[in-house]
Amino acid sequence: MFVTAKKAVELLLQGNIVILPTETVYGLAGLATKPSAIEKIYKVKKRPKENPLICHVGDIRTIYEYSYVNAEEEKLLSFFPGPLTVLIRKRNIPDIVTAGSEFCAFRMPTHKIFLEIANKVTVPIAAPSANPSGRISPTSEEIAYEYFGETIDIVKGGKCEIGIESTVVRVIKKNTLEILRAGFFTKEFFVNQGFTIVESKKENDFLSPGLLPKHYSPSIPLILFSQNYMEYLKNENYKEKLITILENVYEPIKKQNLRCKKIGFLIYGEEFKKNSIFYNLSKSSNLQEIAKNLFLYLKEMEKNFDVIFAFKPPIKEGLGVAIIDRLRRASEFEI
Ligand code: TXA
Ligand code: MG
Q1: Which of 165, 169, 294, 295 to mutate for ligand 1's pocket (most ligand atoms within 8 Å of CB)?
Q2: pLDDT digit string (tens) for 30-58?
Q3: What is the pLDDT of residue 214?
Q4: What residues does 117 pair with on adjacent strands?
Q5: 293 Cα: distance to centroid of ligand 2 (angstroms)
Q6: SS3 of 109, please?
Q7: pLDDT tens-place string over residues 205-251
Q8: Whole-angstrom Cα distance, residue 243 to residue 70?
Q9: Neighbour-count burial of 215, counting CB atoms closer than 10 A to its CB (0-12 exposed, 13-18 middle, 19+ buried)
Q10: With contact defined as beta carbons under 8 Å apart, do 331 and 298 qualify?
Q11: Torsion of CA 132, 135, 137, 142, to 10 degrees
Q12: Of residues 264, 322, 311, 319, the one with CA closest to residue 286
C-alpha cells in the first residue's frame, strides 16, 4: 500500500519497515537502532547477513551522535546531502546493521520527503535499495510496488532524480580515499577537491573483461557491447551481424539460440529514436540522463523481451564509470 510520510514515521517508530524514496533509488527502511527492524530488512530482501546496510540521516548532527568523525571524514561530510556515502567508525549502531564491522556507512539524501521523515524519527535510518537481492534497484514508486507493494508500505516520491546508487567511499589516510562503489560523485570530483584516490580491489574485480560474476540483473540475460558496435545498428541486418560477431567471440552463446529470441536494444544517441525495440537512454548521450533512465528502462525491457543488447556509454570516465559498473553487474557477457 502507499502511505503518507506521517504514517511512515509512525511505522518506523513502531519498529516496522517501509519503503522510502531517495534521489538515488528507493530504500527499504527501518530504524538502525531497532535490531528487529533490521532483521526484517535482511529477511524480506533475502540479503546475505554479511552485506552491511547504509544508515541515512536527515541532519549531519545525527552522524556525530552515532559515530566518531575524524578530520578527514569531516571534509567529506561537507559534500552532504547528496548521493554520497561515507564509512565512519560507529557509535551505538547495532552490529547487525554493519555486519559486525566497526565502520558504518552514512549518507544524507537530498530527497525532501526522505529528509522530512528522517528529521522526525531523529535516529539513523538503515536502508538498502528496495529490491530483492540480485534484482535491479527501484527508481520509481511503481517498481518498488512491483517488488514489495503487497506486503510493505511505500511512500511515493516520484522518479528518482539520480537513478543509480550513491558513491561509497572510505578514508584510507590523510587526503586519500578508496571508492568502494562508483556513483554520481566521481573520482574526478574528489581529485579536484584535492584527494588522492587509491584503486579499490573491489572495483578492479569488476573491471576484468569477459564473463563476469553477476551481482544484480534484469530477469532476462543482458549482453554488453562496446560503444563501437552501435555502428552496426545502422545496417539493415544488424541483428544477424551482432549475433554472428557474438558467436564468433564466445561460442557457448550459441546455446542461447539468439536468432529465435526477442531482442531489445538499450542505446543512446540522436540518430536513434525510442521505438518498440530501441530504448534510447539519452538522445544527447548525456550521462546524467543515461543514469536516470538506466534502471527504469531495464525494468521495462525485462517485461517486453527475452534478451537485452546494451551498449556502453560514450565516456568511460566521470559518471560513465558508475554506468559501466551497473551495466556490467547486470550483464551475462561483455564484448
Ligand atoms: O544510493 C544508495 O546508496 C541507496 C539508497 C537507498 O540510499 N542504498 C543502497 O544500499 O544502494 P545497498 O544496501 O543496496 O548498497 C549499499 C552498499 C553495499 O555495497 C554495501 O556492501 C556497502 O554499501 N556498505 C554498507 N555499509 C557498509 C559498511 N559498513 N562497510 C562497507 N561497505 C558497506
Ligand atoms: Mg542494492
Answers
A1: 165
A2: 999 999 999 999 999 999 999 999 999 99
A3: 54
A4: none
A5: 17
A6: coil
A7: 433 333 445 556 778 899 999 999 999 999 899 999 999 999 999 99
A8: 53
A9: middle
A10: no
A11: -80
A12: 319
- Integer Cα distance of 56 and 44 in angstroms: 19
Q: Write out pLDDT tens, residues 155-212.
A: 999 999 999 999 999 999 999 999 999 999 999 999 999 999 997 765 444 333 334 4
Give 228 Cα–ligand 2 centroid separation in angstroms: 30
Q: Is 72 left (phi over 0), alpha (psi -120 to 50) or beta?
A: alpha
Ligand in closest contact with the CA of 139: 1
What secondary structure letter does DSSP report for 138? P
Please state the rounded mean pLDDT for residues 120-124.
98
Indicate the pTM of the whole model. Answer: 0.95
Question: Which ligand gives the minimal distance to the CA of 96?
Answer: 1
51 touches ligand 1 (CB under 6 Å): yes
Q: Give the distance (Å) from ligand 2 centre to CA of residue 27.
A: 9
Ligand 1 pocket test, candidate residues 84, 85, 141, most atoms within 8 A of CB: 85
Pairing of strands 222-225, 167-173: unpaired
Q: Looking at this protein, which amino acid is placed at residue 48?
A: P
Task: Determine if ligand 1 sits within 6 Å of the CB of residue 85.
Answer: yes
**Contacts of 97 by beta carbon, 8 Å cutoff, 6+ apart:** 32, 38, 52, 53, 55, 104, 126
CB-based burial of residue 227 (10 Å sphere; 0-12 exposed, 13-18 middle, 19+ buried)?
middle
Whether the CB-CB separation of 1 and 18 falls below 8 Å is answered with: no
What count of Cα atoms within 13 Å lies in the side-chain half-sphere of residue 52? Answer: 22
- In this structure, how many other beta carbons lie within 10 angstroms of the beta carbon of residue 330? 23
Terminal-residue alpha carbon distance, the chain:
42
Q: What value, to the nearest 5°, has the Cα angle with vertex 257 and ends 256 and 259?
A: 135
What is the per-residue burial (b if ≥16 Cβ within 10 Å, else e) of 244-276? Answer: eebeeebeebeebebeeeebbbbbbbeebeeee
